[in-house]
Specification:
Layout (H helix, E strand, L loop, with lengths): L1 E3 L5 E3 L11 H12 L5 E2 H9 L7 H16 L6 E4 L2 E4 L7 H17 L3 H13 L13 H28 L7 H10 L4 H13 L3 H19 L5 H11 L65 H14 L9 E5 L6 H12 L7 E5 L10 H11 L11 H12 L5 E7 L2 H4 L10 E6 L10 E3 L5 H12 L1 H6 L1 H11 L3 H13 L5 H9 L4 H4 L1 E2 L2 E2 H20 L21 H9 L7 E2 H8 L3 H13 L4 E4 L2 E3 L2 H14 L2 H26 L21 H24 L3 H10 L1 H4 L4 H18 L2 H17 L3 H15 L6 H17 L3 H14 L4 H13 L3 H18 L2 H17 L3 H18 L2 H17 L3 H18 L2 H13 L1
């Protein structure tokens, strides 16, 4: 058997066939025993290691069951795991555990380093590092107290091995190949001074002394800031020697061994100062004497390459930069992206344009990373060696031996290697040359971030490039003849190069079709993926490969039994792929196409946010989801179409409906809580207090910020709810969005309330219908059409009148109608409607404030002030500070109209104090506007302009265009 802890947990038989360990607890038990290296482990230790402080009463029986499963999964006789009254013991042979092999390599490397056998040090450290596949025990559910000590020990050992390996490289004269790698290590471990010194020396020997000095200066400042001390004396001395261009730091050829000793110093000499290399880079081989063939394996490049010019220039520029004599290392240029984005096309194009710089050959290798059987690195190395002329019988066995032979054969040669469809970093790391001179291009659907060099994530093509690509295949005349249909086709393809090629190919193969014919087929509900195919190419197949791999990895990480256990929300059916990233991909595809956050996704999936965030990031890494901003996620249109189809195939109708309903309820309760902060005095839709999905927002800014982030999702959720038949939630959500949408989002206000009105009518709920009509009337009024708004309010009145218990609604509608007449300048009619409003609700402070405004416009300021006094008494009695603040602002307006500007200033300032306390920024800006007017009346122009300027900034931010125009006029006139 072979056991792997240095990365994801791996168990293989002697032939390399993976063994599936059934449940997470069984994997945890096996890991705990492996961590003890064959030593006895007590029952209590195992219980604590697996369950932490929450050990169940059934733990002992459960452990017996897990041992039985482990014996069955390992397919061995019972002596592998021994169970005694004292505890457990796992029999592990010396070569079976990767940790043991790693420690053995480290011990031998230490001995070779003491003997200054640098070639041996390089080989042993390389073998040790090759055992690492990622973060140790990354997928085993162990408590931190069990995992962290092991991880810390192994990570420290890994860093030590890296230091020794780079030390060997510097002794062997291989400074050209390590500077970029060391720079990444220094960035990750800025206080590890050995890496800093090695980076400085590698840069200096590569002809980059200025960069070496900059690296020192950065490290010095970091060490001082973090530790409060200067760098160690050895690093300071190396800096001095680089600064003075000390010739003894230069790597010497083997025929001219270095004889000048380093300057004497009382400080201890770190190993990056004691280097005395005796080897240079191998000389270039005479091509005429080279017995090996020169491979030319690049596929042909499409003649209609379109739309990736910037990315192509970046790759070519970096390749040319790395091609200089002082090039730092073998750079790995990676292009990642979802299926169909043109990764291979771009890299093949780049390879053809740069191939003459690599006269010793160009190799193309398809690694099959997205297939169910990716090519193992050992097999890939066999193909590489064959391409370099090694006879089949001379290809050695084993990954390390093949990798070493490959690096030896390619050293000193200038070759271009294109590794297509890489699965992960572990698959390509053994395939990289060991010395500068060659270049490696990699395509992958994964983001391979651990290598130096260019990394490009390919997204959708811009519209102009997408159109050019379509026209190059289908014909410019056909595309230009129907511009609207062309736009529909481009929207259906969503900028994906493969989709555009297939759409163009279908048109080219069907001369009788117009672009409109194809557009109709693409826009027919649910047909877009079915239509984008040609010959053996299919967009759905290209996209689904990433999903299938993700599903396979999820099942492998869960184990066979866990993947069948029910861990989903109510309605879970136990079908495969029900939990984790795969389920998230499917069900989130049912949500709106706008960018969403983790909280919304967690609500839809009925899972905790921490787990959901991990799943979303896994989807981003697999290019099944985009992340346009930190914590925000969005589907590419075609991937969302795939997600919807997969959900219909894999998830029951009940599961899909519940996911949509949970998402809509999250939107509704969030909007209601945010509106409570933005408009505390406003009438809100009654919600079930016991079912609230979130608590209150802390203040106005937090609520407004939430609305700003979630606006597109919230607006789209109204239509989603209506389409899902959630009509009550539809109009309730539209009504709850009012307080935010009035702040400059008039189009969204109109759209949501129009849908809300349709939903209310679909249920026959007249009260809801009247609520929506009232909201639409306010939207029309807000956009400067008071006469039209009156029509909406009259329709709402007809629904409410004569129905008992509708006094509050009638009062609100009459008040809104009064506001319409105020805006029309008909203040007598406004006053008439305000009085009707007060008949229904005599203590409506909103109506009293508006009535005072109408009286003031009629020149009846004394009556207006009496009304405001009446309103203020009610406001103070009920502690309605929001309405009180509005009343104080109206009082300021009335006092200004009565030529009492000094008193008006005081009223505005009292209003502002309350509004700042409550956080209502829009009302605060209106009061600032009035305060500026009153100060201008008092000839205090500088103060007035300051108030107008601040009010203008808020009005512009909040989208109040009318008042923004008025404020600009005031400032211009000043």
């Amino acid at each position: 058997m072979r056991f792997g802890l240095l990365g994801s947990f791996v168990v293989e038989d002697a032939g390399g066939t993976p063994r599936q360990i059934g449940t997470p607890k069984a994997r945890a038990l096996l890991a705990v025993l492996l961590l003890r290296g064959g030593s006895p482990v007590s029952w209590d230790t195992v219980k604590t290691a697996i369950w932490g402080e929450s050990v169940p009463a059934t733990a002992r029986a459960s452990l017996h069951n897990h041992v039985a499963r482990l014996r069955r999964d390992l397919d061995e006789s019972g002596d592998r795991i021994q169970v005694t009254p004292a505890g457990f013991r796992l029999r592990v042979l010396d070569d079976e555990l990767d940790v043991t092999r790693f420690d053995r390599y480290v011990c031998r490397a230490r001995t070779a380093r003491l003997a200054e056998d640098w070639a041996e040090v390089e080989a042993l450290t390389g073998s040790a590092l090759a055992l690492w596949r990622g973060a140790p025990l990354s997928d085993v559910p162990l408590p931190d107290t069990e995992r962290e000590p092991f991880v810390r020990r192994m990570e420290e050992a890994r860093l030590q091995v890296l230091e020794w390996g780079y030390e060997a490289d510097l002794h062997l004269g291989r400074h050209q190949g390590i500077a970029a790698e060391l720079a990444e290590l220094v960035a990750a471990h800025p206080l590890r001074e050995t890496f800093v010194g090695q980076l400085m020396l590698a840069l200096h020997r590569s002809g980059r002394p200025a960069d070496a000095l900059l690296a020192y200066d950065t490290a010095r400042r970091t060490i001082r800031r973090e530790l409060g001390v200067d760098p160690e004396p050895g690093l300071v001395e190396l800096h001095r020697r680089i600064l003075t261009l000390d010739p003894s730091l230069t790597a010497q050829p083997a025929t001219e061994p270095q004889t000048t000793p380093p300057p004497a110093t009382n400080a201890p000499t770190p190993h990056f100062l004691a280097l005395n290399p005796t080897v240079t880079d191998p000389p270039a081989t005479d091509p005429s004497a080279d017995p090996h063939p020169t491979p030319h394996q690049l596929p042909s490049s499409p003649a209609d390459f379109t739309g990736r010019e910037q990315e192509l220039d970046r790759i070519l520029g970096e390749l040319a930069e790395a091609d200089r004599p002082d090039g730092a290392t073998v750079l790995v240029h990676r292009v990642s992206g979802s299926g169909g984005m043109g990764k291979t096309t771009l890299m093949v194009r780049a390879a053809h344009q740069i191939r003459e710089r690599f006269p010793d050959g160009q190799i193309f290798l398809d690694l099959g990373g997205m297939t169910t059987m990716p090519m193992p690195p050992e097999s890939a190395l066999g193909l590489l060696l064959r391409a370099l002329g090694v006879a089949p019988e001379e290809v050695p066995c084993g990954l390390q031996a093949r990798s070493a032979q490959f690096r030896s054969l390619i050293a000193g040669r200038r070759m271009l290697i294109l590794l297509d469809d890489a699965g992960d970093a572990a698959q390509i790391r053994p395939l990289l040359p060991g010395a500068a001179g060659s270049a490696v291009l990699v395509t992958s659907r994964r983001r391979l971030a651990s290598f130096p060099g260019v990394r490009i994530d390919l997204g959708a093509l811009p519209d102009d490039a997408a159109r050019r690509l379509l026209a190059s295949i289908a014909g410019e005349d056909r595309v230009a003849a129907q511009p609207s249909a062309t736009t529909e086709v481009l929207r259906g393809a969503s900028g994906m190069p493969l989709a555009l090629r297939l759409a163009g190919s279908r048109l080219a193969a069907r001369p009788a079709w117009s672009v409109q014919d194809l557009a109709h087929r693409l826009t027919s509900h649910g047909r877009v993926l079915r239509e984008l195919y040609a010959d053996d190419l299919h967009v759905r197949t290209a996209l689904q490969m990433s999903y299938e791999l993700l599903l396979q990895e999820s099942q492998e990480s869960q184990g066979p039994q866990e993947s069948q256990e029910s861990q989903g929300p109510p309605g879970h059916t136990g079908r495969k792929g029900h939990t984790g990233p795969a389920r998230a991909f499917r069900l989130l595809g049912l949500m709106p196409s706008a960018a969403f956050g983790t909280a919304a996704a967690a609500a839809a999936l009925d899972c905790d946010e921490r787990s959901v965030e991990d799943w979303l990031e896994a989807l981003v890494d697999a290019h099944l989801l985009e992340s346009p901003a930190p914590g925000r996620y969005q589907f590419h249109c075609l991937l969302q179409a795939l997600a919807v189809e997969l959900a219909e195939e894999s998830d029951s109708e009940e599961e899909r409906a519940l996911a949509v309903e949970r998402f809509v309820l999250w939107c509704l309760h969030g909007a209601d809580a945010a509106t409570a902060r933005l408009a505390p005095a406003a009438r809100r839709v009654p919600l079930d207090a016991g079912a609230r999905l979130r608590g209150p927002f802390a203040d106005y800014d937090e609520a407004y910020g939430w609305y700003e982030r979630e606006r597109e999702v919230l607006v789209a959720a109204v239509s989603l709810a209506h389409e899902a038949g959630l009509h009550a939630q539809t109009w309730s959500l539209a009504a709850s969005l009012w307080a935010y949408l009035r702040l400059g989002r008039n189009d969204d206000w109109l759209a949501t309330h129009t849908v809300g009105l349709a939903a209310a009518r679909a249920t026959g709920d007249e009260r809801a219908e009247a609520w929506m009509l009232n909201g639409l009337g306010n939207q029309v009024l807000h956009t400067g059409r008071p006469a039209e708004a009156i029509g909406y309010f009259r329709r709402a009145l007809r629904i409410h009148e004569g129905v008992p218990g509708r006094d509050a609604e009638l009062s609100a509608v009459f008040n809104n109608m009064g506001t319409c007449f105020t805006d029309l300048g008909d203040h007598e009619s406004a006053l008439h409607h305000y009085r009707k409003s007060l008949v229904r609700e005599p203590e409506s402070c909103a109506t009293l404030n508006n009535m005072a405004d109408a009286l003031s416009h009629l020149g009846r300021q004394d009556e207006a002030l009496d009304v405001l006094d009446r309103a203020e008494a009610i406001q103070r009695a009920t502690r309605d500070l929001v309405s009180l603040a509005i009343g104080l602002r109206v009082r300021g307006d009335v006092l200004r109209a009565a030529d009492r500007a000094a008193e008006a200033v005081e009223a505005y300032r009292r209003a502002l104090a309350l509004q700042r306390l409550g956080g209502d920024k829009h009302s605060e800006a209106v009061s600032l506007m009035g305060l500026g007017d009153a100060l201008a009346d008092l000839k205090r122009q500088t103060e007035a302009e300051a108030c107008w300027g601040k009010a203008l900034r808020w009005m512009e931010r909040l989208g109040d265009q009318g008042r923004s125009v008025d404020l600009r006029k005031r400032l211009a006139g000043a």
